[in-house]
Design brief:
binds FE2/S2 (inorganic) cluster; Ubiquitin-like (UB roll); about 160 residues; 5 helices; alpha+beta; DNA polymerase, domain 1
C-alpha cells in the first residue's frame, strides 16, 4: 500500500490515505478535510477564489494536485489568523468592510498574505494591487479591497 499523503494544515499534521493521483488540492481541502472556506470558482486558474498558502507561497489549489505538495505546510482561511501577517490582513479587510457576498474574500486574503510574505511589508500598495489582479470579485468590491490594502500597517505584525 502506498504511504499516506502527509500535509500540515493550519498547524495540524494530517495523514490521508487513498488519495488518488488525480485529486486536486482544492478537493482534498474542501471534501476530505472539510475546510469549506476555500472556494471553487472558475476551476481553471482565472479567479483566485481557491487560493491557499503552500509553504507560505500563494497557490491556486484548483490547479495543484494534492500529491504535488506532499509533505508541505498548507494554510487556508480557517488558519490564516494563526499568523501575525494573516491576522493583520483579516483585520484590515474587516475594518475596510472589504466584502459583500464574501465568496472571493478568502482567496484575496490568502493571496495578499502570500504577497506580503514574498515582498515584505514595505511593498507599495500599487504593486500589491497590481499583483492581486488575478483575483476576481464578482460583486465588484474592488474599491473596498483597495482600501483594505492601503490600510495595512507597514511595520510590525
Ligand atoms: S477556482 Fe481556482 S483560480 Fe478559480
Ligand atoms: S464579495 Fe462577492 S465575489 Fe467578491
Amino acid at each position: 500500500m502506498p504511504p499516506p499523503l502527509a500535509l500540515t494544515v493550519n498547524g495540524e499534521r494530517r495523514l490521508l490515505d487513498d488519495v488518488p493521483d488525480s485529486e486536486r488540492l482544492l478537493d482534498t481541502i474542501r471534501w476530505r478535510l472539510g475546510l469549506k472556506g476555500t472556494k471553487e470558482g472558475c476551476r481553471s486558474g482565472e479567479c483566485g477564489a481557491c487560493t491557499v498558502l503552500v509553504d507560505d507561497r500563494s497557490t491556486l489549489s484548483c490547479l495543484t494536485l494534492a500529491h504535488e505538495v506532499d509533505g508541505s505546510t498548507v494554510t487556508t482561511i480557517e488558519g490564516v489568523a494563526r499568523d501575525p501577517v494573516g491576522r493583520t490582513v483579516q483585520e484590515m479587510f474587516a475594518r475596510a468592510g472589504a466584502l459583500q457576498c464574501g465568496y472571493c474574500t478568502p482567496g484575496f486574503v490568502l493571496a495578499l498574505v502570500g504577497l506580503l510574505k514574498e515582498r515584505g511589508r514595505a511593498a507599495p500598495t500599487e504593486e500589491l494591487l497590481a499583483d492581486l489582479s488575478g483575483n476576481l470579485c464578482r460583486c465588484t468590491g474592488y474599491l473596498s479591497i483597495a482600501r483594505a490594502v492601503a490600510m495595512l500597517p507597514r511595520e510590525g505584525p
